[in-house]
Amino acid sequence: MTIPAFGLGTFRLKDEVVIASVKNALELGYRTIDTAQIYDNEAAVGQAIAESGVPRDALFITTKIWIENLSKEKLVPSLIESLKKMRTDYVDLTLIHWPSPDDAVEVEEFMSALLAAKKQGLTREIGISNFTIPLMEKAIASVGAENIATNQIELSPYLQNRQVVEWAQQHGIHITSYMTLAYGKALKDETILRIAAKHSATAAQVILAWAMGEGYAVIPSSTKPENLASNLLAQDLQLDQEDKKAIAALDCNDRLVSPEGLAPKWD
């Protein structure tokens, strides 16, 4: 299975805001939507999809299992609840959102439960998010690399996460980048702006094109129709080797997402 290279993120968007964002995106041609149990917007996303008129089989929907639902008793029932909220019989991809803090639930337990959900047809594919190399090793030992469609990690020009990326790719695990624009910080970067001017593109288009050019999937979010439309055009932007080298040099291990009590020991 191929993870779509470009999709819509819905982190921090709720109620009417997320409904408008998803509807606008679908109207513009987006077909991949990323949500999560903890975003508290699955029902709103489901409503937007239902009202859009886009057929379910044309969409690729991802959700993520929250840490409170990782036990073998809770994981599948929580996913069934997510499906009800989204008004669908299945999702295309289900991720473990964060590894269980302090190994309260063992990797083998939740990965096996997630694989069971796949076998039941509740999700077409399964994967992980915010997993380090040691955690990926455990996940592979539990269900096999062939059953891990992606590792969704924070990845931006300022946090290029090369060690994790290279290890994942060597083991056949695709990378999905979140926080690709570094909370908007990278949009003001002089190097990015120079490359954008050279290509008559926006800073966001340059960053998203860079990430996709590296082989990662991206899921930028926006509440503005003009930005949703503009971001889509990143798929047509080709950066040259000089551009890529300049962006590679921006890496400074600047991690923005590392919640206390939740984040693993990063590589």
Automatic annotation (TrEMBL):
Species for this entry: Silvania hatchlandensis
Chain positions recorded as substrate binding sites: H97
Enzyme class: oxidoreductase
Domain NADP-dependent oxidoreductase: 7-250
Active site: Y39 (proton donor)
A Gene Ontology biological process term: methylglyoxal catabolic process
The protein's name in its UniProt record: 2,5-didehydrogluconate reductase DkgB
Transmembrane segments annotated in the record for this chain: none
